[in-house]
Amino acid sequence: MSAIKNVTIVGAAGNLGTSVFSKLVDSGKFNIQVLRRPDSTTQYPAGTKVVDVDFSSVDDLTAALKGQDAAIALFGATSLGLQYGLIDASIKAGVKRFIPSEFGGDVGLPKNRTLLPFIEKGKVQDYLSEKSKSSSLTYTYVYNGPFLDWGIQHNFILDTSDYQPTIYNGGDVVFNTTSLDTIANGVVAVLSHPDETKNRAVYLGDFKVSQNDLLAIAKKVAPNKPWQPKHTTLDEATAEADKRLGQGVVDYHTIAPYLYRSIFDPEHGGNFKHNDNELLGVPKKGQKFIEEVFAKKLA
């Protein structure tokens, strides 16, 4: 496969998008283009090529993607469906590589495809895979587990906001987790290794840890805080989520327990069997990184 040079990013202003955009620019390897909604007020650094486009129009998207070698979708959970049009436009425009909005648990596992946050991702994955069979478009799925630094800072993988973190199923289940920086480096590496990453999933990771491991690090960093962890089960959490969903309430408190199921339930493969950091030349963070993140959070 010929080298990838011209790269389009969609969702470059999000939590992960900001990191991916910066890494791609800083690498100096690519010509970067950002697609943005016409009503967006998001600003990018001077010199960035920004194209305002109607994401409901395949024709508009096709025109914007002409001459592009790769497209990276970094949509939020409520916008995943926009990828179908982006995939169709990528094919019409002759794009070589498409990286969909995965960047979490392994959607290739059947059990994960039954969880609400992954249902649409699975459908997009199937659509992309099928379309690639009759076109020149290739794909790479990037799996990294929960975001490490973001997950600590935003009380997701361990809620330290009141020093009473909720521990699920005993807290000893080991899971794969990756920093935003490492994920972004992984995306750069995928585009730099198009043949090795063609039509497959790549698995990234900085650490394999448990909630209890994270709690121990938090206590080491902040030993004088009034730590009082609370214990619950995934069954209790998802039962409450099912109830909220049945009432038509779809918010963070409804979605999070299903994500926790994908991370803390061994049957959902959160402890990845594979890791492609070495293949891609992406270094892993050390434990000091986690300590530094907690130090900033708990200061």
Automatic annotation (TrEMBL):
GO MF annotation, one: oxidoreductase activity
The keyword Oxidoreductase is assigned to this record: yes
InterPro entries in the cross-refs: NAD(P)-bd_dom_sf, NmrA-like, NmrA/Isoflavone_reductase-like, PCBER-like
Domain of life, per lineage: Eukaryota
Signal peptide: none
Record-annotated NmrA-like domain positions: 5-222
Alphabetical UniProt keywords: NADP, Oxidoreductase
Oxidoreductase among keywords: yes
Pfam family, one: NmrA
Matching PANTHER family: CIPA-LIKE, PUTATIVE (AFU_ORTHOLOGUE AFUA_1G12460)-RELATED, NMRA-LIKE FAMILY PROTEIN
UniProt name for this protein: Oxidoreductase CipA-like
UniProt organism field: Pochonia chlamydosporia 170
